[in-house]
């Protein structure tokens, strides 16, 4: 029998799905059918590290990118190896496949036939180049005592150093890293949060220092971010489960447009599809089906302890954001029209297909904890109207004075002070949503989710990013019934409220306490620091530990343990509120 050729073997042992190669085990020996099948020695390098992602109980994605150092645009053969040990003496998988310009020289392999709850090691080879080694872990099937996530979002390369990634890579016993979006930013040099880039040595390169519009633009921006050693370290340390937010496309994206997509910038849909193609090329995300680079909502079951539902609150179904400017005239805010629009039953953040899917997932899951991994704050962030006015125009408003007047009034309202005047009560009780880009701008759909979680008696934990600040919220229905809690992570580098409001360091703590008091369901806020979140689930509790770094503007930093915070919630209908841990 003639020797099996390399190409025949690849067809027999691996197949492609939407740019993903499937590996089922060790490949056998093969012979080349012609000299064309022999890889000519080329100058190749793995400059962007390795990554794993979307773990299931029997499979996991692995990723890399090879960089041709010569001028050739020819395809490159990359081989992969998966082993039980870091020395690769207990090999379980091997194979090879070609990649090229069509996929930006990236390769994703879906490694199958693995054992639940086990750690594995993987690496890639191309020519004489060998990649770094990555460590990955499959999901457990049953009998799970603990599930532990690192949660991150909002990593702006020119804004600062990725110290949060470096620290998260050192966390022990992580089952997965959840990245909730804004993995890259689309802005040009001179735009948002780029003012310190030159001093930090993190300027955008000349061939990619404009705003991102084309597939080539987005690819180059991912390539820049993935040269960061701290991001590479975290990808190599644990599998990612990621979703996009807006800046993977453009600021405040919705289904058919974005705040940062203007007339004269071309067709938005083409821009969006280019951005999402680059995302799928550069992230270890498993496509929902062949050539589907639009659907990213999906679920992961960690035994019978945690069901994690990753949502797309940004692209696939979102209606355009409301704007207060459309409801304000010389006579003030048209409150009746605004309330009618923001609570309209046909207003959607998820889109009906995704909502149907989520309702089904919640209904059929028997896991102890139902966890929503998603982008924007779900908690009801209703602020006194005059405070929101001050927040909206910090340059022309005295926020400190406003807070100084409202906080004593709120304390008197809470105490039931009978001497309060109707005008004073109105200053506290006249509240409006803080952020219409968040779930507050899509109130009906949020209430549907809350109502379902309560009706099904689920222990609901919501994870969020987007704001660059750390938040802890109690989640309640409009009737005041507790349904769960929300943990929101600080950003990796993107500036937060301290920058937007221009708060001096001495005023930050007071502002945090005031905002927490004035927002009824808010239990915790860190408005000034960058970092990440570690969430741990057991049968008895869900625990959030916020970690903060002292700075992102210097290579020297420490973990600010004095500002760290821990909150827990307990299972059961009567216990679904946040409690502090001292």
Tell me what the structure shows:
- The protein has 582 residues and is α+β, with helices and mostly antiparallel strands.
- The protein contains 14 helices and 32 strands.
- A 7-stranded mixed beta sheet has the order 15-14-13-29-30-31-32. It has a 7-stranded mixed beta sheet with strand order 18-19-22-25-27-26-28.
- Strand 10 and strand 11 form a beta hairpin.
- The radius of gyration is 25 Å and the shape is globular.
- The relative contact order is 0.11.
- The N terminus is likely disordered.
Which helices and strands, and how do they pair?
Layout: H1 6-13, E1 16-17, E2 20-23, E3 44-45, E4 50-53, E5 60-65, E6 67-68, E7 76-83, E8 91-99, E9 106-111, E10 119-126, E11 129-130, E12 134-137, E13 147-152, H2 163-169, E14 176-179, H3 197-200, H4 215-225, H5 229-237, E15 240-242, E16 253-254, E17 257-258, H6 268-282, E18 298-302, E19 306-310, E20 328-329, E21 332-333, H7 335-342, H8 352-364, E22 369-373, E23 382-384, H9 385-392, H10 399-415, H11 422-429, E24 431-433, H12 443-455, E25 460-464, E26 470-476, E27 482-488, H13 497-500, H14 505-518, E28 522-526, E29 531-537, E30 542-548, E31 565-569, E32 579-580
Parallel strand pairs: 2-9, 13-14, 14-15, 19-22, 22-25, 25-27
Antiparallel strand pairs: 1-2, 3-6, 4-5, 5-9, 7-8, 7-10, 10-11, 10-12, 13-29, 16-17, 18-19, 20-21, 23-24, 26-27, 26-28, 29-30, 30-31, 31-32
Distance between the termini: 72 Å
Binned, the helix content reads 10-25%
Number of strands: 32
The profile of the biggest β sheet is: 7 strands, mixed
Oligomer: single chain
Mean pLDDT: 93
Low-confidence stretches are: 1-16, 29-38
């Amino acid at each position: 029998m003639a020797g099996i050729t390399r190409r025949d073997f690849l067809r027999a042992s691996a197949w492609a799905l939407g740019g993903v190669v499937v590996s089922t085990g060790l490949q056998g020996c093969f012979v080349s059918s012609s000299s064309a099948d022999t890889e000519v020695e080329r100058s190749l390098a793995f400059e962007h590290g390795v990554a794993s992602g979307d773990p299931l109980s029997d499979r996991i994605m692995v990723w890399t990118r090879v960089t041709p150092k010569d001028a050739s645009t020819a395809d490159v053969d990359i081989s992969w190896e998966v082993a039980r040990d870091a020395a690769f003496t207990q090999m379980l998988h091997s194979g090879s496949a070609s990649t090229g310009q069509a996929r930006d020289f990236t390769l994703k392999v879906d490694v199958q036939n693995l054992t639940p709850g086990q750690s594995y090691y993987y690496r890639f080879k191309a020519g004489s180049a060998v990649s770094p080694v990555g460590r990955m872990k499959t999901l457990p099937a049953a009998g799970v005592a603990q599930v532990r996530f690192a949660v991150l979002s909002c990593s702006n390369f020119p804004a600062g150093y990725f110290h949060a990634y470096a620290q998260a890579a050192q966390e022990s016993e992580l089952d997965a890293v959840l990245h909730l979006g804004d993995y890259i930013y689309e802005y040009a040099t001179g735009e948002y949060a780029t003012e310190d880039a030159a001093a930090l040595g993190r300027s955008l390169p000349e061939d990619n220092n404009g705003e991102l519009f084309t597939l080539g633009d987005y690819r180059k921006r991912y390539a820049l971010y993935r040269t960061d050693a701290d991001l590479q370290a975290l990808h190599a340390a644990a599998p990612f489960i990621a979703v996009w937010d807006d800046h993977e496309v453009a600021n405040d994206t919705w289904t058919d447009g974005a705040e940062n997509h203007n007339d004269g910038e071309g067709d938005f849909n083409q821009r969006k599809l280019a951005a999402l193609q680059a995302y799928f090329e550069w992230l270890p995300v498993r496509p929902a089906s062949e050539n589907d680079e639009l659907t990213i909502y999906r679920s992961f079951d960690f035994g019978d302890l945690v069901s994690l539902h990753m949502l797309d609150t940004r692209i696939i179904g979102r209606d355009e954001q409301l704007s207060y400017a459309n409801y304000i005239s010389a006579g003030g805010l048209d409150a009746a029209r605004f309330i009618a629009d923001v609570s309209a039953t046909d207003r959607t953040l998820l889109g009906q297909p995704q909502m149907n899917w989520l309702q089904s997932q919640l209904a059929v899951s028997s896991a102890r904890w139902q966890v929503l991994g998603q982008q924007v704050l779900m908690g009801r962030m209703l602020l006194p109207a005059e405070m929101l006015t001050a927040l909206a125009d910090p340059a022309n408003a005295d926020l400190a004075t406003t807070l100084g007047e409202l906080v004593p009034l709120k304390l008197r309202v809470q105490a039931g002070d009978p001497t309060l005047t109707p005008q004073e009560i109105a200053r506290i009780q006249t509240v409006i949503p803080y952020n219409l880009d968040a779930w507050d701008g899509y109130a009906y759909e949020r209430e549907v989710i809350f109502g379902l979680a309560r009706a099904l008696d689920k222990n609901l934990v919501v994870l969020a990013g987007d704001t660059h600040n750390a938040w802890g919220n109690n989640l309640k229905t409009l009737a005041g019934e507790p349904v769960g809690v929300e943990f929101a992570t600080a950003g990796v580098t993107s500036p937060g409220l301290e920058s937007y409001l221009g708060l001096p360091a001495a005023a930050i703590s007071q502002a945090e306490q005031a905002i927490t008091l004035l927002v009824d369901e808010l239990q915790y806020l860190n408005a000034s620091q960058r970092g990440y979140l570690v969430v741990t689930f057991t049968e008895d509790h869900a625990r959030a530990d916020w970690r903060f770094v002292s700075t992102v503007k210097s290579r020297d930093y420490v973990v600010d343990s004095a500002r760290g915070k821990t909150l827990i919630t307990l299972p059961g209908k009567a216990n679904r509120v946040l409690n502090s841990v001292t």
